[in-house]
Specification:
The protein contains 6 helices and 2 strands. It is mainly alpha-helical.
Length: 189
Amino acid sequence: MPADDIPAATPRSADSAGYWYPDAGPLTSERVRAVAVLRAVRRFRAADVAMRIRARSGMDMNDTDMVALRHLIAAEERSESMGPKDLSVLLGISSAATAKLLTRLEGAGRLRREPHPTDRRAQVLHATRRAQDDIKRVLGAAHQRMLAAAERLTAGEQLAVVRFLDELSGAMDEPVAAGHPPGGTAPTP
């Protein structure tokens, strides 16, 4: 079993910081537990990626198609309209790539385009019922199991997980300048 696949409850030796956390400071039980938490996050991320690969394969779609449909469905749930430009920005792709994506999704029966209600030049995009049903079919059971796992936590545990994941997201969003150590200071010229 790879080092990051060892269950979090397994105690580690002095190499607990290991490759990913070499400058983690003195090896304390708190540090070992913190590294175990981060390894659990890595295992979760790997499981999430594997689940999404299976879902895309089950729907015969690529990652961008799946993410586009997710954004369209989420926008509709919020009663917001989304056009090609909005989708292009969310996906971080060019307008030409967006046009190809929309043609592909429409050809597969997963996207419907409608004229914008107030701007004749614009379009409003909608995921079709088929697309929504396909996504529920391939991801629905996994999402139910994930919800059940979250519901088994106490209210305090749920709040702690949310706080931790929000803090982790913030830490990951911080840009790292080339040549500068993460979390460190810039080298003196």
